[in-house]
Write a structure and sequence with these properties.
- The longest helix has 20 residues.
- The chain is about 30% helix and about 25% strand.
- The model has no long low-confidence stretch (mean pLDDT about 95).
- The strands form 3 sheets. A 9-stranded mixed sheet has the order 16-15-14-13-7-12-11-8-17. It has a 6-stranded parallel sheet with strand order 3-2-1-4-5-6, with helices on both faces. Strands 9-10 form a two-stranded antiparallel sheet.
- Helix 1 packs across helix 9, helix 5 runs antiparallel to helix 10 and helix 8 crosses helix 10.
- By secondary structure, it is of the alpha/beta class.
- Strand 9 and strand 10 form a beta hairpin.
Length: about 375
């Protein structure tokens, strides 16, 4: 039985991830109907038609509004550059479509609020692409924290680093434009903040700083262009549950490929996680005898849902695209009315955006910002 009709806007890296998820979700999770890949929109009609054929969509179009108005499209995947998210999401919601939008939610707080309000008015399901929360190891960490295995959480350290902008000779492109956002703060920091949202709770105050390691980058015409946003950001924060925290993000960190490092310290132990070793979780517990106290490594296994949907044996490991398939399944669960669907919707997404914009204000004033 064919399920919802899907429209995909954008066929780059993340668009391909969405396409793979829509293609695989019913195979991995037999409790949902197989989606129908209706239409793909991209920058030009030629590119759209080419990618629609490659990804398995019924047709391609150079006009994303044409895709949204198609009555056969019931849910819209938005994988376009950041500055287009708000207009696309609002238009889709006003047309009565469900929305799966990549992060960050928007490049301005006003646009993020506009997206949240459109979701409220429409009554449609609208979620953001925070697939790292879907990792079975993160879900297991959430369970351990909720069960009190590390006691009361009192300190949290969050890091995200990659090196795709570490080379000063890397050409200027849209991610360095002011219109794409603050830079690492919203391009990166939203991911560890999404983990914090599901593992601990809300941030209540923040003080931040941002840096531009290379003031200019080569332009395509042989000139150099000033970098308009920040590749490095760091912040101190406090949470509603009384914990202190540190957030550090860097898009120019040589040697780091996909690192999201998470350290959560509590009164009875601690939990460590690193996205570059995404199928492992480390836990230290004072409940162990003195002779056995030390960090133990837990390998992802079928006992850590929904790992077994992919692999029946422990230690074999999931990858980034598998997390996207899980996220797609959770979206379909939310659309079907499952109130326990494990997603970050536009309501919770706006909370993350509020932290980002408060941190940016703090970096400009040098003062703590209250949320």
């Amino acid at each position: 039985m064919m399920g919802l009709g899907v429209g995909l806007i954008g066929s780059g890296y993340m668009g391909k991830c969405h396409a793979l998820a829509w293609t695989s979700v019913a195979t991995v999770f037999p409790d949902v109907s197989r989606p129908k890949l209706v239409a793909l929109a991209d920058a030009t009609p030629e590119l759209a038609r080419e990618q629609a054929e490659a990804f398995g969509f019924g047709r391609g179009t150079g006009d994303w509004r044409d895709l949204i108005s198609d009555p056969a499209v019931h849910v819209v995947s938005i994988a376009a550059p950041n500055q287009f998210h708000a207009d696309m999401a609002v238009a889709a919601l006003e047309a009565g479509k469900h929305v799966w939008c990549e992060k960050p939610m928007a490049t301005s707080l006003e646009d993020a609020i506009r997206m949240r309000d459109a979701a409220r008015r429409s009554g449609m399901t609208a979620i953001l692409g925070y697939n790292y929360i879907q990792n079975p190891m993160i879900r297991h960490a959430r369970k351990l924290i909720a069960e009190g295995c590390i006691g009361e959480v009192n300190h949290i350290r969050l890091e995200m680093d990659e090196d795709y902008m570490a080379d000063p000779a890397e050409p200027f492109y849209w991610k360095s434009e002011k219109r794409s956002g603050y830079g690492a703060l919203d391009d990166f920091a939203v991911h560890p903040l999404s983990l914090l949202a599901v593992l601990h709770g809300r941030i209540t105050s923040v003080v931040a700083d941002m840096a531009i390691p290379y003031a200019e980058r080569p332009a395509g015409d042989g000139t150099r262009r000033p970098v308009e946003n920040h590749d490095i950001a760091q912040a101190l924060f406090r949470t509603e549950l009384g914990a202190s925290g540190v957030l550090m993000v860097n898009r120019s960190a040589w040697g780091r490929k996909g690192r999201i490092a998470l350290q959560i310290f509590g009164s009875k132990g601690s939990i460590l996680f690193d996205q570059e070793r995404m199928n492992e979780l480390q836990i230290y517990s004072t409940a162990d005898s003195l002779e056995l106290q030390g960090y133990r490594t837990i390998l992802a296994a079928p006992t850590h849902a929904p790992y077994r949907q992919f692999i029946p044996a422990p230690g074999h490991g999931l990858g980034f695209n598998e997390l996207k398939v899980i996220e797609c399944h959770e979206l379909l669960q939310a659309i079907s009315g499952n109130c326990d669907a494990y997603v970050i919707d536009f309501e919770r997404g706006l909370e993350i955006e509020t932290v980002i914009h408060a941190a940016a204000r703090s970096a400009q004033t040098g003062m703590w910002a209250e949320l």
